[in-house]
Amino acid sequence: MKIVSGIYGGRPLKTLEGKTTRPTSDKVRGAIFNMIGPYFDGGRVLDLYAGSGGLSIEAVSRGMSHAVLVERDRRAQAIIAANIQMTKEVGKFQFLKMEAERALEHVNGPFDLVFLDPPYAKEQIVADIEKMAERNLFSQEVMVVCETDKSVELPEEIACLGIWKEKIYGISKVTVYVR
Q1: Which residues pair with 96 in a beta bridge?
Q2: What are its E.C. numbers (predicted)?
Q3: Which of 84, 131, 144, 151 is an S-S bond match for 114, by CB 3.0 to 4.6 Å?
Q4: Are the CB atoms for 90 and 69 separated by under 8 Å?
Q5: Among 33, 90, 27, 89, which Cα is nearest to 62's?
Q6: Rounded-to-integer distance, Cα 67 and Cα 60, Å
Q7: Are 117 and 132 in contact (CB under 8 A)?
Q8: In what order do the strands lie in the sheet with 111-116?
Q9: What is the pLDDT of residues 169-179, one digit of tens each?
């Protein structure tokens, strides 16, 4: 896997072997950014279930100014740390080694872009979005990108957000919420 585009474009991304994380493929990552961008003029990104960190590193590569990555799995944490080092711009990243639920108590918004790819999708996505809305973690122009199995049906509206776009890529479904 590698960074698809932007200032880090072409650089390799480490990923975790096994089934504890499901790294977003280069093809799906590229498609997600074509849906939502593809490039940005600053802003903050939150990657709540970071896995390898690929999505938020790609966002910074494409113009986001700062990313907060959250991951609880110790093996994945080592991969994320190496991937952040690969950018040679570690100051653009904040890495929280904790559960997503706990991280939501500690982070400060607003965030312009949020990635949600939790292991148990539907219920967790709804709870996370409701918690973030309650804590005012969303900017006015926020986009929340949810990656799930294609069989998962997310609600049309969650808290202050509604579905803007939804696409299926192989076994994955990408749902984008906006205000």
Answers
A1: 70
A2: 2.1.1.171
A3: 144
A4: no
A5: 33
A6: 7
A7: no
A8: 93-96, 66-70, 44-47, 111-116, 138-149, 172-178, 161-169, 157-158
A9: 888 899 999 99
Q: 110 preceded by cis ω (within 30°)?
A: yes
Residues 55-87 pLDDT 10s: 999 999 999 999 999 999 999 999 999 999 999
Q: Tell which CATH architecture fits domain 26-178.
A: 3-Layer(aba) Sandwich (3.40)
Q: Report the chain's mean pLDDT, rounded to a whole number.
A: 92
Work out whether strand 172-178 and strand 161-169 pair parallel, antiparallel, or are unpaired.
Answer: antiparallel
Q: Is the pLDDT of residue 13 over 60?
A: yes
Do residues 7 and 71 touch, judged by C-beta distance below 8 A? no
Enter the tokens of residue 90. 């570690």
Element (H, E) at 33: helix 26-36
Instruction: Write down the residue that tokens 């904040």 correspond to.
Output: 94
Query: Cα–Cα distance between 148 and 166 in angstroms, integer?
Result: 11
- Let me know the angle formed at the C-alpha of 79 by 77 and 83, rounded to the nearest 5 degrees: 115
- Beta carbons within 8 Å of 26's beta carbon, 6+ residues apart: 1, 2, 4
- Amino acid (1-letter code) at residue 1: M
What are the residue ranges spanned by the domains of the chain? 26-178
